[in-house]
Amino acid sequence: MRRLAIIGGGIAGLSAAWRARRLSPDIEITLIEKEPTLGGKIRTEQTDGLVLEAGADAFLSRKPAALELCRELEIMDLLRGQIPRVKRSFVMKAHNLHSLPEGFSGLVPANADALKKTSLLSEEGRLRAMKEPSIPARLDPSDESVEQFMSRRFGKEAFDALIEPLLSGIFAGDAAALSLNATFPNLRELEQKQGSVMSGPRIPDKPGLPAFVTLAPGMAELPRRVSCALQDVRVLSAASAQSVTRRGGAWRVALAGSGDVEADAVILAVPAHQASALLAGTDGALAEVLASIPFASSAIIHLAFARSDVTHDLDGYGYVIPRVEGSDLLACTWTSSKWEGRAPAGLALLRLYAGRFGGPEVLKRGDESLVSLAREELRLTMGITAHPVLARVVRWHHAIPQYTIDHPGRLQTIQSRCAGLEGVHLAGASYRGVGIPDCIESGWRAARDAMEHLV
Fold first, then answer.
1. The pTM is what?
2. Mind listing the domains of the chain with CATH numbers?
3. Which of 37, 341, 445, 454 has the highest Cβ tally under 10 A?
């Protein structure tokens, strides 16, 4: 019987196991996860009627993989959109909240009328942004940073005030270092084909679904359902893989203190720096390029208040904080206004995000310090001075990969080196997308490639 080992029990590894089992019921699959539970960075805590998401609180419905997985698991009835009655978000500027102009499509301000009226830009900044359709396309085919591209098309003021904070909400990164071709290649294509990104065609929402959806019990329901549905898959939890080496005609996964797992193919569904450590003794050049992918660390601070202690209307989904504001915080989600069933009546649940790539290392701060940082931001911007009835801090070390300018070149090298390691495949957020649908698709792609090798 042919054997497949999958290292990593996050959504990418779980999706790889799910797809591999559906493609080939006859192979022997072993899933190895260093934590006691599966799910990776998708974690949900429920306490006293509060639903606290440790990682992503939703996924993008326009990318098909997550929806397809939900259909296969028969949990489409659990999908929920954002609360429609408060459908707007804000941008913080000097601790005042300004409405984000309507009509954004990804990073692009596509509604010209809303852009004309925004209070986030000066008159000069609005006029410059409105010129985007007339800005000539860049003929140089080489890559450029997201900041260079968006500032060239919309002006630096619009980039700093409108576009950069939305980008930080995805990558927690430095837009001056992020590769346009690796992060938003569709924008380059729009510029080349349409001459404008503002007036180009938009990607439509899925019929009957909003752009972002979550699961009613919390996002952890997705990996939980996958793990429950994995039939005849051997799961080794709390098992730390130490190395992946070739022994005879098979791959050997060495586990800390619990022997080895042998397989004919291996999928490494772990962050690139962990994959680097596992493959260091097998392909030093591959390990080196994997280790060169930078990662940002971040913290999530959940704060719940008595609703009577929050004078703000909470008439939206929350706000983002531009880098130019000089804050270590990126955004504040008004969770109880964004999703139904996330807080009991009488409580307001807020979630703040800390940590910018290239900025101060926020994880060096203790929990009390991070809570104080979040509370001071809420005091200055929203006038909240009460003590929270709940405070939780979630820390993610080296969690968000940064697709820097040289990322496309790295991917080519990684693909070439993996091709020389027959039976080794990579999956996860480190390579071609950081969202949940991207990670699911990466797991499926790795499973398909592994099946081609095994069959």
1. 0.95
2. 3-40+221-293+404-454 (3.50.50.60), 44-85+295-401 (3.90.660.20), 103-194 (1.10.3110.10)
3. 445
